[in-house]
Predict the 3D structure of the following.
Amino acid sequence: MTRRLTATAAKAPPANGSRRTEILDTAAELFAASGPRVSLKEIADACGILPGSLYHHFESKDAIVLELVQRYQADIDDIAKRALAAVARSGRRDARSFILGLATDIAACAVQHRGALLLTMYESPPGAWDDLVPSATGTPATIEAAMVAALGMGQRSGFIRPRIDLPMLSQRVCQSMLQVGVGVFHRSPGEEQTPAVKCRMLLDGLAAQSPADADLDRSPAHAAADGVIATWQDLGPDADERAMMLRGVARAEFGRRGYEATTIRDIAAAAGVSTGSVYRLIGSKDQLLESVMRSFAASVNAGWKTVLDSDSTAIEKLDGLMWVNINLLARFGDEFRIQLAWLRQSPPNTTDVGASLSISSRLRHLKVLLGHGIREGELQPPGGSAELRAQCLLELIWMSEQLVRAGPRIALAFGRETLLRGAASRR
């Protein structure tokens, strides 16, 4: 069932010799590298043809996007159908291997269809594929259903603990596997181990000994997290209410569309003002992004520093970081989506969101924390290199919006049951 994660570097000629297929493959590579702003001229240039020649095969860019998304949906649906059929044939197989195989297939599909995934993450302009996008965004229902079936097989056999919420775990596993394809770490050394490392973290947990909720709630790390959370503000006071309003609109537009896909004209239209007013009140798009993200970046960095500096064990610090991140997402949802857009695409050419949010610094902190916890016997190693473990944990420690919408305490309880204790039974 498992297939290689890495997409073939050299594009093979289309099996049927179709120029249409060649155009689609080229467009997919461009969208994967540059996101939704790729133009028809750029696609034509990469194919070595005139832009007018593209219209012999596709009537518009929307038509290309539509077909790329349909190819992705067909492949992910095929994986789901095969998994469901396999579960139906045998309900008493090696659940761990089956779940890992399904997860790896999802990750491989995400890598192969990176362009389609990136295209469906943001609000689209009006076009031929509007009706398709709502069904393509988020985690496909078919693959979540297949993962629920696989996890249910594991729960019936005693592999998955009875108290684990299977739909929640399915959504978490599927989402984390799709992030393998759209994240910035999918080309890292040892990337083929990423699905296994992430699955081990969620199934086996990181804690060597299962911590009690009461102990975690009383830990210095949790108290430090609560202290810094109480200091946050959504937006700082601004002498000009119009500028404050524009920042709020920009937050929503950047979060919905992604920074690269959003223009000053989009922000002005959403705010009901002229583009000239935006420039006068805020400045350039880069300056607007910086002003929007400044408070969020300060909150993220302060939260992480406070928890990591607390007099706590490694597992207590991981719990505190989860609590900080859950509350960040609940309080700063738009800014979180802007950050996620950066993690899923190359950083914008003009503004390095990753630097302002100290992504590399957080990776270093997690690498040190994991290494110390493993040496002290507090944490169990999930496999992979130290760098890969930190990358996987950085993504998993952020809960999904769906989980956080259920309630911060529910999200924290789920994180403790999976990432800390592990969804699988400890025998």
Summary: The chain has two domains: 19-204, 213-417. The longest helix spans residues 61-89. Confidence is low (pLDDT under 50) at residues 6-17, 125-129, 234-239, 346-356. Residues 11 and 403 are 39 Å apart (CA to CA).
